[in-house]
Amino acid sequence: MKILVACEESQAVTKAFRALGHDAYSADVQRCSGGRPEWHLRGDVLTQLDKGWDLMVAHPPCTYLCNSGVSWLHKDEGRWARLDDGAAFFRALWEADIPRVAIENPIPHKYAVERIGAKYTQLIQPWMFGHKETKATCFWLRGLPALEPTTNLKEETMALPNKERQRLHWASPGPERAKLRSKTFPGIADAMAEQWGGRDDVS
């Protein structure tokens, strides 16, 4: 399959699909950090949506959409315009002329859901896919089934100290924090590739 992984610089999902023989490409305004620039489309991903993709997995910026930041809307009036822009970008990905679409984001606040026009389909945690961490992640799915958990480590995860199981939440402030928090866990990336793509024997 021809697969677009939108707003991904780490190439974690791209590599998982590539490992199964798919023609997958990451796309982002940033340079990729995954080490395979030949698999990376740098620039505005909206210019890539009409290239005949079979599947798109997208990770749009969540700064103004996620529930954890909703209180700032009432403290900074300028954030409402940025919320509108973020929701419009999300909606452009969701409405792309691609038969199978998965969009990943944290839990959204109600104003984001109103502007996007669609509630998330599924909520997962890393501990469902072999990682002893918590980080609620939502998927909006079109033409795709919900991801099935692969390795349930909930009991082991909840036994850990809060700062260990919520490692990303407690990450030190700095220029790399957002990039670190946005990276897809390998177990989740592998589940996407295996369950939404399977092995592609065309290559």
Structural class: alpha/beta
**For the CA atoms, what is the radius of gyration?**
17 Å
Give the strand tally: 7
Structure annotation, total helices: 7
CATH architecture: 3-Layer(aba) Sandwich
Q: Summarize the helix and strand pattern as letters.
A: EHEEEHEHEEHHHH
The CATH topology is given as: Rossmann fold
Strand content: 15-25%
CATH superfamily: Vaccinia Virus protein VP39
Largest sheet: number of strands, sense, barrel closure:
7 strands, mixed
User: What is the mean predicted local confidence, pLDDT?
Assistant: 91
- First-residue to last-residue Cα separation: 10 Å
Number of separate structural domains: 1
Strands of the largest sheet, in order across it?
3-2-1-4-5-7-6
Question: What percent of residues adopt helix (DSSP H or I)?
Answer: 25-40%
Approximate shape: globular
Residue ranges: pLDDT <50 for 5 or more in a row?
none
The CATH class is identified as Alpha Beta
Q: What features would you describe in this structure?
A:
The chain has a single domain (2-196), classed as Rossmann fold, CATH 3.40.50. 29% of the residues lie in helices and 16% in strands. The chain has seven helices and seven strands. It has helices at residues 12-19, 78-94, 110-116, 154-158, 162-165, 177-182, 186-196, and strands at 2-6, 23-28, 40-42, 55-58, 100-105, 122-124, 137-142. The protein has a seven-stranded mixed β-sheet, sandwiched between helices. The radius of gyration is 17 Å and the shape is globular. The N and C termini lie close together (10 Å).
